[in-house]
């Protein structure tokens, strides 16, 4: 099975099948756009309440004031006057966001973290640092990251592995790392003043433990955590089971880290249209590892195909269940299998709609599953 | 099994058993009301934080300043001075709300949507339109509805049916319809610029697909959805299984669409006291289909009898479980059976109490199960 | 099996094993504190958004401006100038909170409620009253309590018991008691104007019913409930099963009532560091009864050991499941077993981090499981 594909952007854009269906309407819209000339500035009135300030999109205020993507439907044609109407401006913004997807941004997320062996111990290194983070094209914010990534690099080991993790703090305040979901000796648990001293600015701290339980876990700051985790000190810690038969069969896997704090509404540190689509070939089974590092629930709704939920917090459920909308609460991880039986570009988003769409178009916690 | 009863108001008011218990205390209170004379205006201080602006109730500022419903309990009698006290005013407002329940309002919800056959296809028609919607007696708001109903008309078919749905847009902005929970071909999925062009103002768009999966589903706008779904573009899409043995046995069923957006806190588009009670005869089993179309969770608490939860998002659970408070997240649907073993008027409400009661009395997401 | 230990503070402070690990780092920090002299006032800038006003901690503005708990880690030493730095001030505040835990406050919670027998009926008495309630050291607020306790006294009976509960209202407004989760005759259900008159100020009302179902239940006001439950009119109602084999085996039990209203973020009416730790001996199994009496979800994350979830709302699940983070919604109760296999002081908190930690340090919904 493959790992997450963090940069499939060009591949996806050039893939024959998925882009064909995906661009059918946007292409249509672009063509239609030439049919209407107009010179007004946007007359859109945006309701502030539905546009979180942290997530204002940056749809380019271009000169292409076309009648974007209105289509004609099967009957009836809207009468248009000489100027662009509010709804045409709105549709144009919605279309512009879709056309940008998946949009290129600077900054990689969750790259596999290399390790070196020292005896039988896998040694990893994490550095807490300030990073200018591009959430969506053009929206850059100071983030606090592990190794410049948000979420931090993926630590992936196998049940029973011995690990040593050196954490260097290059921030202006102390920190500590909690291995959320892993069962570790108390003095490796990462809670300052209870199990260890804080890792002060400029210092390095070493964690060392044997990985006892498999599953989809996380690591994140446990010091001034509302601020530090919000700013980006979080990452996935995935433990493959020693007994592979514990896992259901799947061909590919994806980790989706949900967040709603300092970067706005994000999946894997990016907001739509900079989120990365999940891709699969028809007939493949994919595994999705949901992890909520935010402060709100996110009921994740996949269009087109059901989700078979088989594990919570790294523990297999006694009996898997099916759903199309999975409610993921802060701190929880859920693992699901999707059987990719239906080709197409399937919207995939948080169903708290205000986390996913404003009058400017889709933003935040939206991505797609592309089955080709 | 019967369908939802959308207008049982008079029936309920006149039903011998249920109203007997229901009115026992309110009648008592009315009688007691004649015993105390008072002339002060209400001295109630309302905490703004606990009274959402959208849900300020409209308890009539009548002239009946009786000592409403204080009752006497089993021991002790509160000393009253010559003027009505703050608590008496408060109790009177609480009682007034209850006495109005179920209050008549204009506007039907979720009426069965008629269809015509064209060959072997069931053809439905939905029109998106602006409607003045009465949420509670006297509180009317502009809503955007399907066919003038909020939630929209109930589409009910059987697994395997072929359907064609004509959607006409009479709004001032484009729209599109997503069949939430149904497995449809990608190009019928209702996501503008990904699977179709938006349905522009004045146009009609046709969806057509075979219904592949049974269960409690929904349809709603997937364009500018935070606004459009909030304004009312949502409805239930119920698919009966071809194999009826898939469902547990029940005598009656009810759909409860939960919402918390432009109309305030509502069940089926109405706030208490305009919500419709569920009614059943002693010994009947009822099925409740919960659907959350809002932006918040709603843990639904039924008094008196437990809920057997047997399906999520249209999928039967591998093993049903029992509860009295079922947390329903946005986009989720849950199906439960209640065995009506205990007669009486049982309160039934969201247990986020601020969605259900203010110092003015009960409002919003409150109804009752009346077992007679 | 033991009951909750509501006042194990001195015991815990003096317990040899648990305090040894718990104080190791705080002692270390105190020693380190003598090495740095400084005279500046705190330069901490607190982000208002992350410090709920109701939960501002009261860390003493002492004169001990030591380099609190910076530790040195395994490598690197932060350069310090002559004055205390912002991060040192912040760490000192974090440490101060931990050192106070478990902090003494006035006011007991959930003491077993005594009863007297009248024939075969257990007679309990509850008085609704105003109480000055100390949430954390020095933060006292007016609360509305049952018998001066918040949560109210624990009512504990056995399935099949006949109970009579006299409720006296010493508040300035009417009230009523709902037995949340218990199946009672309709006229004992506690909903004013539907099943009974309100209990007016100064009066006493009598409830009487046979307890039909076991499990972790609650009692709380059902009149002006958003305000009254928020102010503190709530308590646990625990029903032991007649057939003890219904429960899994456990050595000790704890009830955790979660809240987020008038007292801020609390567990059993107290905010950290005044919360009471759970204590167990190595190898013991503990049962935790979660009850949410607030308006928000609280995903409760226990470090170190998994939770086996076996009951919801008093009903055994058909199959228990494992987790480390259990999402508890308002009105829900969940029962879990923790097998105390790992010694140490394990953080235990709501994983909505803003309910648990600010730049001042941990507060609110934080406690610990101490396994010795």
Could you explain the architecture of this structure?
Chains A, B, C: Residues 52-64 have a biased composition (Low complexity). Chains A, B, C: Residues 128-243, 254-359 form the Plastocyanin-like domain. Chains A, B, C: This is Multicopper oxidase. The structure is a homotrimer of 372-residue chains. By secondary structure, chain A is mostly beta strands. The first copy, chain A, has 4 helices and 22 strands. Chain A has helices at residues 9-14, 16-33, 86-100, 225-231; strands at residues 116-118, 121-136, 139-146, 155-158, 162-169, 177-180, 204-210, 215-221, 234-240, 252-259, 266-267, 278-280, 285-292, 298-302, 307-312, 315-323, 325-328, 333-339, 344-350, 357-358, 361-362, 366-371. The radius of gyration of chain A is 22 Å and the shape is globular. The first copy, chain A, starts with 8 loop residues before the first helix and ends with a strand.
Output the strand order for the largest sheet of chain A.
11-10-13-18-15-16
Nearest-integer average pLDDT of chain A: 84
Spatial extent as radius of gyration of chain A = 22 Å
**What pair of chains forms the biggest interface?**
A-B, 57 and 54 residues
Please provide the ordered H/E string of secondary-structure elements of chain A: HHHEEEEEEEEHEEEEEEEEEEEEEE
Separation, N- and C-terminal Cα atoms of chain A: 17 Å
Helix/strand structural class of chain A: mainly beta
**What is the CATH C-level name of the largest domain in chain A?**
Mainly Beta
What helical percentage do the residues of chain A reach? 10-25%
Q: Can you tell me the CATH topology of the largest domain in chain A?
A: Immunoglobulin-like
Domain count of chain A: the total is 2
- Spans where pLDDT lies below 50 across 5 or more residues of chain A: 1-80
Question: What is the 3D shape of chain A?
Answer: globular
Largest beta-sheet details of chain A: 6 strands, mixed
Q: What proportion of the residues of chain A form beta strands (DSSP E)?
A: 35-45%
Instruction: Write down the oligomeric state.
Output: homotrimer
The CATH H-level homologous superfamily of the largest domain in chain A: Cupredoxins -  blue copper proteins
CATH architecture of the largest domain in chain A, please?
Sandwich
The count of β-strands of chain A is 22
